[in-house]
Structure formats: structure tokens, C-alpha cells
Amino acid sequence: MTSTMPAIEPEVGKARLRKEDARLIVGNTRWTDNIVLPGMLHLALLRSPMAHAKITKIDTSAAKELPGVLAVFTGADFADEQGSLPCAWPITPDQKAPNAPSIAVDTVNFAGEVVAIVVGRTTYAAHDALEAIDIDYDELPIVLDMAAAVEDGADLVYPDLGTNKSATWIFDSGEAGSGGDVEQAIADAEILIERTYRQQRLIPAFMEPRSVVVDPTSAQFTMWSATQIPHILRVMLSMSLGVPEHKVRVIAPDVGGGFGGKLQVCPEEFIAFLVARRLGKPVKYTESRSESLQSAHHGRDQIQKLTLAATKDGTVTGLKVELLADMGAYLRLVSPGVPILGAFMYNSIYKFDSYRFVCTNVFTNKTPTDAYRGAGRPEATFAIERLMDELAVEVGMDPLAVREKNWIKNTEFPYDTVCGLTYDTGNYEAATAKAKELFGYDALRTEQKERRDRGDSVQLGIGISTFTEMCGLAPSRVLGALSYGAGGWEHAAIRMLPTGKVEVVTGSSPHGQGHETAWSQIVADQLGVPFEDVEVLHGDTQSSHKGMDTYGSRSLTVGAMAVVAAADKVKAKAAKIAAHLLEAGEDDVEFAAGSYRVRGAGADAKAVSIQDIALAVFAAHDLPDGVEPNLDSEATFDPENFSFPHGTHLCATEVDTETGRVTIRSYVCVDDIGKVVNPIIVEGQVHGGLAQGIAQALYEEAVHDETGTLTTGTLADYLVPSAADLPNFTTDRTETPATSNVLGVKGVGEAGTIASTPAVVNSVVDAVRHFGVSDIQMPLTPMRVWQAIRTGQTDAGGLGHEAGGGLGSVSTSARPAGRKTHTNGEAQ
Amino acid sequence: MRITVTVDGTKFTDDVEPRQLLVHYLREQLGKVGTVVGCDTSNCGACTVHLDGHSVKSCSVLAVQADGSEVTTVEGLARDGKLHPVQKAFHDNHALQCGFCTPGMIMQSIDLLADNPDPDEKAVREGLEGNLCRCTGYQNIVRAVRDAAAHMSGGAGPEAEQVADEQVKAGGAQ
Q1: Antiparallel, parallel or unpaired: β A41-47 and A114-120
Q2: Chain A to chain B Cβ contacts (< 8 Å)
Q3: Which among A125, A108, A301 has a CA at the least distance from the CA of A701?
Q4: Rounded CA gap, A722 and B108, in Å?
Q5: Is the dihedral angle over the CA atoms A443, A445, A446, A448 positive or is it negative?
Q6: Looking at the predicted structure, is the pLDDT value of residue B167 above 60?
Q7: What is the three-class DSSP state of A670?
Q8: What pLDDT, on a 0 to 100 scale, did the predictor assign at position B168?
Q9: Which residues of B are less than 8 Å from A290 in CB distance?
Q10: What pLDDT score does A600 carry?
């Protein structure tokens, strides 16, 4: 038994290098596509080039004759057993939801939908056979533009539904009792700002293409999948495909990014399962990048009609938000709820008296949309942060001053917002002061004026985003109130091994975040064991049987709280045994730095370590009467509230008024995410988030042409930024602990993405506002910026005319053009 | 067609289809799954390996083109249990999150440092332009490459990297 109390430096807060890296940097990886099983067959999928059509004939006979082809299936082969892909979030009782087959049976509703499956001995053989499949289509009217789709007489994606509107969801602060009547605020407004912003369609573009392997040859069906949600996937396979839940095991091995894009129950996962079950053989399907961009779910795609009411002194009084949200052709797992997650964030950090939010979800013949990093909250943050800049211009105030005038003061927390949330803590003053200093705000304003005065061809702009977000999805009662199909808890277990090592089982499912490192730090502190002695098990429903997985910045604020709760139970069990071994009463022993001692006995007193107790429990020779020989414990944590990270992001851009080129000169963000477990991981999350938010502002857009073909169907056309396209970021933090959890932590996974997009756009608009420009539609390509300067046209450049056409673009010339229902954007 | 290729120091002779991509040969026939495929248009660089000491996107090279050549993948960098300085720098600087782009990023970084042993930030960013990462925002990758440059010493890389050409040499690619 140890006899001295070691001085242990807390692990939480330490800049630990990641455990995960050791395998990843040498190529010892377990990507799903790496998996090879005896007798494994390979799938290739034929996808519809048509956005909306009846399938009139499929002839697979020639494909079946090719060497190395074991089977070819069409929708008809699985029509009776494929069920419908699940949508877990019916936002209203009358929501319209079409059946969502994994493989189309008689109609295709977006270009990219699966219409045939080839099973080959090799991927090459399977892909060769795709070309031998003969399909005839009868074109149907194509619905592409969501605004046109909700007008009377519009062509319908689903004629039998009678409308393209899936559901309309409303929040009204007057009706909810959380605020006043927004129409009254608008009627009384001294200043009224009305704007329409467009959240362009984006693609998550995780680096690892989706992949799935299904092995039907053991007692349980085993599915390996590149997924964020192995636990949800298992339940959904069972509920949708008629396989008992205890006969399915799902494994998420190494998963190469997700960003919401792998928060999905995918057609390809169902297809692989169906084929494996039919053939009794292991199968693998790995998508190509083009398939991924074309058919994996997209994000954003909303039209935001906004009305802000204010007084002449710049005080906001009311906000009305009317949204159209493009669902694409089907409701995927949480598609309908994504815009609703934004409903609670339009008021952001500001004190509004009244608020109304109306969102109509719309079907079109495009790739389905669903969660993408931030999911609803980036859209909301963009809208309010753009509006605050517009208000500042309207009332002649500095945009930071107008924000400060309206934000919740540090002394006003906890604060009940106009949409009914309670923000526990925040310190917008501190974050903003720090950001201003790092940025050199006043000096940049001076330079901006100087360059404007002398008519410099390169103008300087300053963009601000003082954001907050709700994260840690989510209190189950809130999800219940929003009609979500599940709870928002998380599960964890701790296993104390005889040698004193610790296994932590978590229901969170990492795909790059660094859970193994962070959880090890937390458990090291909780149990007083070395960081190296902790192994984190995850992503396999056999070892981690219970979980709600990873998305919505929930792992730390929910998942790690379950880990802490499980550690508390381990310690409670160990205390009984420690007291016995120390021949003291249970109330007389205390736990510190990994050991139990008699309280007040001093550092030199006899101690038993948690490792000693683990061995004593293993032997079980000398335990107190009635005590089970087991320290292992599990816990399920359901949060009481969200956590509310916030921060101030400042972006300086230089805009070449002669070419429209935008260069980010400096980007400073000061985020307040409460207590920090690992500052290195936090910084990495912020960097990556910023990159994606900046990419929305400047580079990325998923464009469908008038036939419904995705023209940004390769990474040559869909502009995921490279190292050369992004600046260095200056990141810092303030630390206002959350009160909603014992560690005082808030989420950080989405913060950078949520905050950065409006900071960049505000900056560019600020640079060219003196040309009469009050908005430029994202992405702010040089063409659009140049056109805006010249003409004031905000969506200059148009859609579908500039992004496509690069290397590997999906060709639309090889087949007749579909009927034109609407052409997006404006021609040059 | 029959090809003979030395991969990470081991010589292999195999029959391959003329159309087979080098990356598929590495992954499917040799089990070198440390090298990954991230796209189908040679934009992402995840599949980057060294062919006779120079970085190539192995999705854009046919296996038959590698006949008689030496290929180094991320799996062949560590020597005697010691990481290549670039691998170590990626770990030390938190230059990876999900790690999917990492093999290609590391291989391209080594090639970059062979051309320019002391690149400034701009040179690193431009040198890695053909390798996409969705997680890190690149800042720590850039830092890692510059950190590696400061730590690189001659002969740090494997033998296959040590090819003579007219370029200025440095560290692991000497």
C-alpha cells in the first residue's frame, strides 16, 4: 500500500498531446474501407442522372453476364423489405413526409439517388458492370427553387402530397409568454430594417468518403460504418429493416471527419445491409468523392426574410424571422429540425422584447439537406450579426457600440431570453475588450478612413461577430417539447481492471475530436490515476452498448459528464472497501490524489490507492460484508440546460475594388467556452471551425443546374479551401465557467463555424459600403464583389454559372436537358 | 502485366491490370492501407506517396508506371521505431484531427522540405495547396512543417528518400 500522498498536477487544463496521433501519423489506421473479410464482395451503385423521373425500364441482364459479377439488384428486388429511411424529427404533427427508399423503386426524386446495385468480386468488376445496365426514364417536372416551389400552381415533387411544403413551424414570444407581440413592435418601430439573406447550400465534405461493411456470417450482423452515430444507426437498422436489435452490432472504427455529414442513417448503409442479408456474404461499399458530393446530405440552403425593429438610439425592440428551408427531395434523419435549432439563436446575445420565427420546410428535386456543422445556428448568427451592422449604419453608430448597447450585461445573468432559454453565464464585455486589443480595432478604423479618403483601390473592411450558441444537445425534455424522436442524454461506464488500469466506455463517438485524450485527462483527475493508464473505448455497440453519439457540440458537456458521474460511483464503491481496509468508518475516509486516507490523519498516514482497491476487489478475499466484488460503474447523464459559449470575432479584409478579390488580412477571435480540458484540442477545434465558416463566406456553394444536376460534383468545383486560401488566425479565450455542469465547460466544436461567416461578410460589406453596397450574396467570389461595387447587385455572378465547369465536372450535355422550372440566379 | 516494385523497403512482384491505379495496388494487393483515397479527381492529395523520392498522388499513377521503382508510403517513414521528424512534428503541433489527410499531408510536407529546407509560412501554404484538410484550418499543419524543418537532419528519412537530384536537399528527403 502506498504511504505518501503524491502531488498530482491536475490533468484537466493541461496541453496534452493527443493519444490518437500515435496510430494516425504512421498509417496504422482502421478506416472502414481498410476492412477486408474472407469472401467479402464489393458493391457499386448506379445513381440516377435525372432529378425527377419515372423509371420505365431497367435491364440488368447484360451486367449480370459480366465476369466477376455475382448479382445485380434493382429497387424491385428490395421493395418489400427496404422500408423507409428514418426521419427522427417530425417538427409538427401534420408534417408531410414522403416514403424514403434506400434504392428507388419506380420514381427518382433527385440526381444521385440509387437505382441499381452491382455485387462484384472486386470493386473494378462491380464498377465495370454499372455501364452495362440499361435504364429508361420518363422525365417529370423538376422543382429546384424553394421560393417558386411554395407558390400556388408550382410543379410538385410529390403530387400525392398536394404541396411542396413539408411543415411550417412557428415560435411567437407573445404566444409563448416569453416576450411581446412582434407585430406591435414593428408597428411602433422608429427604425425598421428589412433584409433577405440567402444561406447557400453547402456540402460537409468530410475527408474520408463514407464506407460501410456488413458481415452477416456471425451471430450478430456486424456493420462497420464511417458514421458519427453508431448507436442511433443500430436502433434505426432494427426499427426499419426488421432485424431484432440484439442481432445487430454496429462499429464506427476510425472515422475521418463528419461535421454533421455523418450524422445520418444513409441509403448506402441500408443497401449494404440488405444485400449482405440476401446473399449471406460480407459486403463492402465505399463511395467515390463524386458520389459523396452528389448524394450524401448537404447543409444550410435557406432563404431568410428578416425584419428588425429598433428605436432611433439603436435599441433593438423586435425581430421577425420568416424562413424557407430547402429539405431537398427527402427528409433525412434530422432534416426538418435543422432550421428549428436556429429558432432560439436569432436573438443571440441581445435583449429583444419581442420575437417571432416562422419556418416553412420545402421539398425540391435536390440532394436532401441535413445537419452541417452548426446546424441552424450559423444561419441564425449570420442573420442577426448582419442585421446589427445594418442597424449601426442606419443609426450612425459604430457597429461594436450598437452591439454593446443591446447585449446582455455581465451583471444580468442568468438571463431569460425572448425565446425562452436561460443563459446561465456570459461575459461579452470581457471577450470583446480582449478581441479589440488583439485586433488593434481603433488603429484599423483609422487606417480604413485614411484609405477611403484617398480612394485607395484596395479598401479595408472590418467585420464583427459577437456570437453565442446553444450547445450540448440536449436536455431530453427540450427535445421532447420539440417533438424529436429521442432523448439527449449520454452514457458512460468505467471498468477498474485488477492491475489498476482503467477502461472508460463512452457513448460519445469521436471522429477526429480527440475524445481519447480529453476523457483520459478527465478520468485521471477524477480517479487519481495516470493519464497513460486510461483507455477509452467507443464506437462499438458491443463494448459501448449505449449512447447518443457525437454532434451538436455535445460530447464534453453531456458525454463527459456521464464519465464524471460514473467515476463518482466508482469512488463511492471504493470508499466502502477503503474504510474496511483502513479499519475506519466509511464517513471517516477521504479520497484525494488517487488514495483513501483516514480524514485528518495527515499525508504520512496509511493510505490505500484506488489501484490497491481494484486488486483487492479482484481477489475478493477481504471485503466488507455484503459488498459486491466490483468497482465498475456506469452512469447516464441528461443535461438540465444547454451551454452557451460566446465570443467576439473580428475580421479585417482587404478588398481590391478593381478585381473584387478579397484577402483576409487578420482574423482575431476570443471565445469563451468556460473551463478548458485541453487547450490544444480547443484551439484546433476553433481553427477548423473558422476555416469552414470562412469557406461559406468566400468559397463554397453546392450548385444544381436547371436540370437538377450538381455541377459542383468534384473537389475541383466544390471549393474546399486549401492552405493557400486561408489566413493565420489569432485565437484567445476568456473563461466564464458554465454553471450547467460540474466541470464548468461549454462546447467548442461548432463555435468557429457559427461565428466566422458573418464576421467575414460584414468585413467585406464594410470595405465597399461607400460604393452603395449593403449586401453581397455568399460565397463572396471576386465576380460578385466586383459586380456589387459596380452595380450594387448583391447576387452578382449568379448561381450555376461560375462554380462548375472544372476538371471532372458532371457533364450535363450527354443527356437531354430536363424541363426548366426555374433558373437560379441571374445571367451575366 | 507483371510489375516489380519496392514498397517501403520490400520488393514485390505482382500481376496487375494495366488500368489499376497505384493507390489501389498499394491498398488492395499489398495491404498498405495507411495510404488512403479521398477523391477521384486528384484534388485532395490524401493518397500522396513518394515515387523514387518525389511526391505523387497515387490515384493519378498507374501501378504499371511504378514498375522498377521505389515507393515510400507513410508506413515506411519511421525507422528503428523512431518517427520521421515530420511525423513527430505533426504530433507535437496538433497538426491532425481525424487524421485522414495526414498520410498525404506528411508525404507532401517531406517533399516540400526537400525542395525548400527552410520555407516561410507562405511557401508552406503554397507547397501544400494540393492537399486538402477539412479539420484543422491548416494553421497547425503549417506550424508543424516549419517546426519539422527546424529539427530535420540529414538522413532522417528512409533510404528510398535519399535520391540524388539537382534540387537542394534537406532532412528526410536527402
Answers
A1: antiparallel
A2: 180
A3: A301
A4: 14
A5: positive
A6: no
A7: strand
A8: 35
A9: 40-41
A10: 87
Q: Helix, strand, or coil here: A693?
A: helix
What DSSP string describes A651-663? Answer: EEEEEETTT--EE
Q: In this structure, what C-alpha cell is assigned to residue A753?
A: 463555424
Nearest to A467 by CA among A201, A758, A145, A191: A758
Min Cα separation B131/chain A (Å): 7
What letter represents residue A136's amino acid? D
Smallest Cβ distance to A715: which of B39, B77, B125? B39
In order of start, what are the domains of chain A with their CATH numbers? 21-28+489-637 (3.30.365.10), 32-140+209-255+262-295 (3.90.1170.50), 167-203+297-472+641-791 (3.30.365.10)
Is residue A807 predicted with pLDDT exceeding 50? no
Chain B neighbors of A17, CB-CB under 8 A: 91-92, 94
- Given the candidates 1.20.1250.20, 1.10.10.10, 2.120.10.30, 1.10.150.120, the CATH classification of the domain at B85-173 is 1.10.150.120
C-alpha cell at A333: 434523419
Does residue B140 sit at the A interface (CB-CB below 8 Å)? yes
Distance CA A144, CA A814 (A): 21
Neighbour-count burial for A231-265, b at 16+ CB within 10 Å, e otherwise? bbbbbbbbebbebeeeebbbbbbbbbbbbbbbbbb
Stated as kind and residue range, the H or E segment containing B70 is strand B70-72
C-alpha to C-alpha distance for A716 and A209, rounded to whole angstroms: 16
Whether the bond between A414 and the residue before it is cis, its omega within 30 degrees of 0, is yes
Cβ(A466)–Cβ(A650) under 8 Å?
no
Contact assessment for residue A116 and residue A60, using Cβ atoms and an 8 Å cutoff: yes
Residue A202, sorted as left (phi over 0), alpha (psi -120 to 50) or beta, turns out to be beta
Instruction: Enumerate the domain spans of chain B.
Output: 2-74, 85-173
> Which of A26, A288, A724 is nearest residue B74 as measured by Cβ atoms?
A26
> Within 13 Å of residue A800, how many CA atoms lie on the same side as its CB?
16
Measure Cα distances from A178 to A181, A356, A359, A417 in Å. Answer: 10, 11, 19, 7
B97 in reach of chain A (CB within 8 A) = yes
ipTM of the prediction greater than 0.90, yes or no: yes
C-beta of residue A750 within 8 angstroms of C-beta of residue A553: yes
- Torsion angle defined by CA atoms of residues A747, A751, A752 and A754, in that order, rounded to the nearest 10 degrees: 160
CB spacing of A714 vs B121 below 8 angstroms: no
Kindly give, in sequence order, each residue whose CB lies less than 8 Å from that of residue A70, ignoring residues fewer than 6 positions away.
A41, A119, A120, A121, A279
A642-656 average pLDDT score:
98
Contacts of A720 (CB under 8 A, 6+ apart): A205, A695, A699, A700, B132, B134
CB A624 within 8 A of CB A416: no
Please check whether residue A104 is in contact with residue A46, taking contact to mean a CB–CB distance below 8 angstroms: no
Q: How far is CA B169 from the centre of its chain?
A: 16
Nearest CA in chain A to B141: A723
Residue B174 banded pLDDT, cuts 50, 70, 90: very low
Count CB atoms within 10 A of the CB of residue A336: 28
Mind listing the pLDDT tens digit for each residue in A477-533?
Answer: 999 999 999 999 999 999 999 999 999 999 999 999 999 999 999 999 999 999 999
Burial zone of A710 (CB within 10 Å; 0-12 exposed, 13-18 middle, 19+ buried): buried
CATH class as words, domain B2-74: alpha beta
Q: What is the pLDDT of residues B114-166, one digit of tens each?
A: 999 999 999 999 999 999 999 999 999 999 999 999 998 654 455 545 443 43
Closest CA of chain B from A512, distance in Å? 3
Residue A359, phi then psi, degrees to nearest 5 = -125, 130
Shortest CA distance to A366 belongs to which of A96, A807, A702?
A702
Q: How far from chain centre, in Å, is Cα B20?
A: 20
